[in-house]
């Protein structure tokens, strides 16, 4: 459950040289990663706007105090922005491109089957960052969780005994609208 927190911290480390101060921020995708990304960004001074098509996920994020929106272009403030794409969906990449203003940094965390077109990169002078995991970030992630700043359990929607692992994977695959993060528990 710490992995999404480490990804958020790694994202901030990669973004810092390009945007040394918090700027308007959009997170595309309100799954567990997007929600915890929003919580971490908020802790570091950003005002994240999270864009998610599923109402249940928007409600989960809103319960944590995040500004949640259906996926649509929205004015979240002027100037360069930080846009973090976590949805791993072509529509999410398209929205990230539409929300990116001139000079914005777009951090791609999800593995979407699409990319931001070179003309957009050129004409808006975007900086595009690929974010893979959260190397070296676990100690800081543990501090954020231990200090009560981030509660990764907030995105857990289902708990299964190890003996029910098949059901856990089935539900996760068949009903992503219901499952935020499923965890297995019990005796090893």
From TrEMBL:
Taxonomy of origin reads: Bacteria, Bacillati, Actinomycetota, Actinomycetes, Mycobacteriales
Instruction: Give the UniProt family note.
Output: Belongs to the zinc-containing alcohol dehydrogenase family.
Query: What cofactor does this one take?
Result: Zn(2+)
SUPFAM superfamilies on file: NAD(P)-binding Rossmann-fold domains
What does the UniProt keyword field contain?
Metal-binding, Oxidoreductase, Zinc
Q: Which domain of life, per UniProt?
A: Bacteria
Task: Report the protein name in the record.
Answer: 2,3-butanediol dehydrogenase, putative
InterPro entries assigned to the protein according to its UniProt record, in alphabetical order: NAD(P)-bd_dom_sf
Recorded GO molecular functions are:
metal ion binding; oxidoreductase activity
């Amino acid at each position: 459950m710490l992995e999404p927190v480490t990804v958020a911290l790694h994202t901030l480390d990669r973004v810092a040289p390009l945007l040394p101060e918090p700027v308007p921020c959009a997170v595309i995708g309100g799954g567990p990663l997007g929600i915890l990304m929003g919580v971490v960004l908020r802790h570091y001074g950003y005002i994240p706007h999270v864009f998610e098509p599923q109402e249940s996920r928007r409600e989960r994020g809103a319960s944590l105090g995040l500004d949640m929106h259906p996926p649509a272009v929205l004015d979240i403030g002027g100037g360069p922005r930080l846009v973090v794409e976590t949805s791993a969906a072509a529509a999410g990449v398209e929205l990230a491109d539409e929300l990116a203003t001139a000079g914005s940094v777009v951090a791609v965390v999800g593995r979407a089957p699409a990319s931001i077109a070179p003309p957009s990169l050129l004409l808006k002078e975007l900086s595009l960052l690929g974010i893979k995991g959260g190397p070296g970030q676990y100690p800081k992630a543990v501090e954020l969780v231990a200090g009560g700043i981030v509660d990764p359990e907030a995105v857990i929607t289902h708990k299964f005994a190890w003996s029910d692992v098949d059901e856990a994977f089935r539900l996760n695959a068949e009903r992503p609208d219901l499952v935020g993060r499923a965890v297995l528990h019990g005796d090893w």
